[in-house]
Amino acid sequence: MTISENYIDKDILFIVQSEIRLKILTELCIRPQTIREIVDKTHMIYSSVSNNMNKLEYKNHVIKDNRVYTINPMTKIYFKQLMEFKRSIDVIQNYNSLWYKHDINHINIQLIEDITKLYKSKLIETNPIDIYKTHNNIKKQLRSSNDVKGILPYIHPEYPRLIENVLKRNGKVELIMEKNIYKAFVSKINDKLRRKSMKNGMFKIHVMKENLQLYLLICDDTMNLGLFRNDGSYDQNRILNSSTQDSMDWANCLFNTIKEKVI
Questions:
Q1: pLDDT tens across 115-136, in order?
Q2: What is the mean pLDDT of residues 55-63?
Q3: Distances in Å between the alpha carbon of 74 and those of 11, 34, 43, 54, 62?
Q4: Which pLDDT band holds residue 4 (cuts at 50, 70, 90)?
Q5: What is the distance between the alpha carbons of residues 100 and 40, in angstroms, rounded to a whole number?
Q6: How many CA atoms does the CB half-sphere of 256 hold within 13 Å?
Q7: DSSP states of 117-145 as a string?
Q8: From its phi and psi, is residue 43 left (phi > 0), alpha (psi between -120 and 50) or beta?
Q9: DSSP E strand stretches across 60-139
């Protein structure tokens, strides 16, 4: 390891060792500010902010012009990389029960690298009081959605009726499912409605021959991700749910990636 690499490591360590310094740099990444502005925004103690700002200035992480502080451009680059890494760790730790002992092989490496897009998601899990919590959440979304995309490795008995109602509302549905459940699914949807919707492009189903070890449902502006356990069984007890634009972009990319394997 070179001297410069050692210096960078120590420099980064100096930043992450203090929550106050992290908050200061977060604010300065938005715009140049005075100490008072940062105190008012973060509600931190003035003396703590001032003390840490002096340390940051001494190490050339911030530049002072009169009373206004600006983050050093190189520090800004390091800091953004640090925060991106921190968000990745948070996504893994916060939703550990979803990832741990679950199969993620159907999620390509690019999407795994972009896992921070799921940062503001919430994990919905069943419990002894509400054992249908995950399904009821999905059902609620399907009842009010007009644009549905899904990767369905299994079919809940209520899904055909819920999808049929989306089509009755002139909604758009595009699904990816395994061959062994396709016929059973379409047979439970009104034949006339199904044919009409497929003809006008409002209802599309892509059939995969291989096993789909992944659950994804995108309803209007909300995404839901479910995974299989390592033993091959689908985990119906938890789904990752999010409505942020980043998560929607991530989910649509996942859907299109699987779709490309079919068409």
A1: 999 999 999 999 999 999 999 9
A2: 94
A3: 12, 20, 27, 18, 10
A4: very low
A5: 40
A6: 7
A7: GGTT-EEEE--SS-TTHHHHHHHHHHHH-
A8: left
A9: 62-65, 68-71, 102-103, 122-125
Question: Could you tell me the two tokens for 25?
Answer: 């740099």
One-letter amino acid for residue 136 of the chain:
N
Task: Give the Cα-Cα-Cα angle 208, 211, 214 (nearest 5 degrees).
Answer: 100
Query: What's the average model confidence in pLDDT over 148-156?
Result: 93
Write out pLDDT tens, residues 69-128: 999 999 998 898 888 888 888 999 999 999 999 999 989 999 998 999 999 999 999 999
Opening angle at CA 121, ends 119 and 126, nearest 5: 140
Q: What are phi and psi of 205, to 5 degrees?
A: -130, 125
Say which residue the tokens 């451009």 belong to: 73
CA distance 149 to 114: 21
Separation in Å, CA 157 to CA 69, 94, 162, 188, 255? 60, 31, 10, 10, 23
pLDDT in the model for residue 263 = 65
3-state secondary structure of 150: strand
